[in-house]
Amino acid sequence: MSFFTINYTYDPAKDADAVRPVHRAYLRELYAAGSLKAAGPLLGTDPVRALLIVEAPDEAAATALSDADPMVTEGIVSDRSVIEWNPVTGIFAQP
Predict the structure, then answer these.
(1) What is the CATH number of domain 2-84?
(2) Where is the YCII-related domain (predicted)?
(3) 42: β partners
């Protein structure tokens, strides 16, 4: 398993607040399943951006987790990147 960062940029013309409750419910499901390690908005960004850290077997699986996110399926996310991450220090570092 590997870690991936998923960066979202939200479309300012879309109503993210309307989708946020189902988005957060989806994130809670991912967290309970062990796939999501952390998520949240990047403060002070304009347009609004968010970061998710997921653990998945490969980039395709990490992307699939994001593909099912209501923020993505409802078109709130205007730009997204999925990048493999190798944490060497801290709580996500592999022993």
Answers:
(1) 3.30.70.1060
(2) 6-86
(3) 49
